[in-house]
Amino acid sequence: MPKDFFVSYNSKDKEWAEWVAWQLEEAGYTTVIQAWDFRPGGNFVLDMQRAAEEAERTIAVLSQNYLDAMYTQPEWAAAFAQDPTGAKKTLLPVRVQECNLKGMLSQIVYIDLVGKPEAEARELLLAGLKTGRAKPGAAPGFPSSGGSTAPRPQTPKPTFPVETAWGEQYLSPEARAAALPPVRNTQIGGVNFSGISGSSINIGGSISANVTAGGDIVGGDKITTTYTAPADPNSPQAVLEAALARWRTELNAIIAKLDDADDKEYAAKNAAKVVEEAKKGPAADAGQIEGFLKKLGNMAPDIIEVTAKTLQNPFAGVGLVLEKINDRIKLERANR
Q1: Where are the domains of the chain?
Q2: Euclidean distance between CA atoms 48 and 54, whole angstroms
Q3: Which of 51, 96, 298, 306 is paired with 235 by a 20 to 30 Å CA distance?
């Protein structure tokens, strides 16, 4: 079964390698690592070759031990040969010890964990795995004349109309919620009154209570009132999630036809990752989505056709990204 990462390391850095592999698997990636996967009775050289061939990317745990060892050189060199320009980020060095990088390996940008506390190291490692841009979610502070930066208040983005497949336009979820009249829910004791559109409630019988000015009704049953804006099924996020749900349903039918149980599990995991990332809308990482879709397409080519059909621009931004990804994957398959 294909893996996301092959962790290449020198035996003296085994603790680091296992820590890296553990963080990756906790984050939902799959790995192959000598300490866990090369079992007694197997052929070490063949196991190593299989790991390098089947993994999408190779992580090189960089230290002076790694650079001085004989058998680690072919491992990173094989990954480098597959992607000499670094366009696919096939070789991903992770520096865990001060070391003297030379030659071609010194030209590859690495993730630097040297001297970092565990929490920061984990954050840097997982952030470095992403193939897209590293643009921060908040605006940087404006640089002062002294070189320091001050926090800058964030200005809300203007509401962007989203056009659906039917040509209608809808406001953002926030704008629509603000425009809709609130629903008044009133609770009296253990009785709830919902959807009240007026200012009075008529109840057969009588309610006796003492009233304190400016507060709740006390002395009898407590009356509390809350206001909740109704959810809008036509919001961009709702349209997006409905399209993804349809896609996942059709995809599950294809996955169910796969013969191997491990392949089914692997395909289901990648499908879940596509949905999780795509739900972020315009903030979704297109590189990650493309990687997950490629893995799915390699296991069942019909998946690409289903993706193009089901997610045919049902929402702005992500729909266009997915269409381009599908076109690119089809072109790559046609040129094989």
Answers
A1: 3-129, 181-199+209-228, 236-334
A2: 10
A3: 306
